[in-house]
Predict the structure.
Amino acid sequence: MANKFIEPFTKTVQHYLKYRPSYPIEILDLLVSKCDLNKKSVIGDIGSGTGFLAKLFLDYGNEVYGVEPNQAMREAGEDYLAQYSQFHSIFGTAEATHLENASVDFLTVGTAFHWFDTEKTKREFKRIAKPNGWVVLIWNVRDVQSPLICDYESLLLKYGKDYASSNAKKLDKVAMDSFFKGHTIKTASFRNVQQFDWEGFQGRLLSTSFIPGPEHAKYKAMIEQLNNIFLKHEKNGIIEFLYKTNLYFSHI
């Protein structure tokens, strides 16, 4: 993962930790029933960031190796998960995790796979996965069926640098077919929701790596448009920010 993909998150880490969504607990039930996840399964959480996905497995009782290249995000994750003795924080990338050969049962990626070099990551995942190990790719995707999210997407298209051509927006089953070639891809989707007051809604926007910061000439107009969206959709000072948590999982 190149520095140009790592560095933008340094300035957003506190907003990211406070305002980004976690992951539904239903993921655990799915992996238990479909992939034989159990409390002894070793998890390699790649691109672990601030630790939201790792926490899901740590609460279940798993040993988790969190691999994260961005120092600010990694340190935030270490603080967030400090109470868990079975969490191990590692400076590394998806393409060079520094994990041992055949050492993990599940390789999980939470809303980060679109930053990886697909072919190099595939080679690395094959190296570190145990025989019959699973790869579980997870995204919290904004639910564009929501009128509020439609308005929010319009704001991102207007003010977000290179948002229209971002890797995250390009991700689809074709990319998954390439990564999981030779194996059957299983999919699942869960509803996920955050509730925000005005301060939280601003924080959610500012957790995004590609939008202008306070020093930018367009920042004030962007916040004004965001406020108009909030006033249009709020009920009793609260808006619902809807996601679909999508999973792609298969052997590697």
